[in-house]
Specification:
Layout lengths: L13 E8 L4 E5 L4 E8 L2 E4 L3 E5 L3 E5 L5 E5 L3 E8 L11 E4 L2 H12 L8 H16 L6 E3 L4 H12 L7 H8 L3 H12 L3 H18 L4 H7 L5 H12 L3 H12 L2
Antiparallel strand pairs: 1-8, 2-7, 3-6, 3-8, 4-5, 4-7, 5-10, 6-9
Helix pairs in contact: 1-2, 4-5, 6-8
């Protein structure tokens, strides 16, 4: 396992490495003084910030701006590439972003990692760095973000549900857990989240499902564990959210992990 502390005292403006974490490892909340670009090659991971949670699978990437507080939770054994980008490079003021890693992005990262840590930012490396940052900016954003409310009572409920996505307690139960009347609970939830409680919980489940399917769990078992009566209704909801069938995700994850 590598850390930013392993980098030389004065690393080049852009530097990276490939590494792996074991399933269950949690890298607690921390920040970096450089922007961090992570590309996930195998496994599944949850990245948490103060106001949201992101579940990523193989082939996806994440840009984390400098000094952004974040936590990493390895849901399975994880293989990834990480690149740290200094703000002295133009275009690095990109917002937090999750995206599909194109062949070009992965190729540029491979070139940076192949240089190890000790190299000079000559014309070639400067061109690679500029193109990489530009491609990150152009990559379409993925909306696999799970937002959390700011109200502490609602947040407590949401955090409990993310820990047990298959929980089937009704809205009256969760309103009581929050110490609110049902009407107050539903109104405040809609106001803070821009969606109803049921819609938010469905989103929790399909994002959790995507992670489990990418990790190799049987689709029927995932559907059952997450509270669906049958695989058909689960597949319908999954397709409505991601635009693809669960089986497509399984095939894409398998092909990515063998490249």
């Amino acid at each position: 396992m590598k850390r930013t502390a392993d980098l030389p005292p004065q690393p080049p403006p852009i530097v990276g490495f490939e590494d792996c974490y074991i399933g269950g490892f949690v890298d607690g909340f921390h920040t970096h003084d450089r922007a961090q670009l992570s590309i996930f090659l195998a496994g599944s991971v949850t990245v948490n910030t103060l106001d949201g949670s992101f579940v990523l699978r193989p082939g996806q990437g994440m840009w984390i701006p400098a000094n952004t507080l974040h936590q990493v939770n390895c849901r399975t054994d994880l293989m990834f590439q990480v690149v740290y980008v200094d703000s002295c490079l133009s275009g690095t003021d990109l917002p937090f972003k999750m995206f599909e890693a194109s062949t070009l992005i992965r190729g540029l990262i491979d070139e940076i990692i192949a240089m190890r840590f000790e190299f000079t930012m000559d014309e070639r490396m400067s061109a690679i760095a500029r193109l990489l940052v530009d491609e990150i900016g152009r990559a379409p954003r993925i909306a696999n973000r799970l937002l959390f409310p700011s109200d502490s009572r609602l947040r407590r409920v949401c955090e409990a549900i993310t820990l047990q996505p298959g929980d089937c307690h009704d809205i009256d139960y969760w309103a009581r857990e929050a110490g609110m009347a049902r009407r107050t609970f539903t109104r405040l939830f809609q106001q803070e989240m821009g969606m109803g409680f049921a819609a938010w919980r469905r989103r929790v489940r399909v994002i959790e499902a995507a992670s489990r399917i990418a990790a190799g769990q049987p689709i029927a078992q995932v559907a059952f564990d997450l509270g669906y009566d049958n695989a058909s209704s689960f597949s319908t909801m999954f397709h409505r959210t991601f635009g693809v069938a669960p089986r497509t995700l399984r095939l894409n994850s398998s092909s990515t992990s063998h490249t």
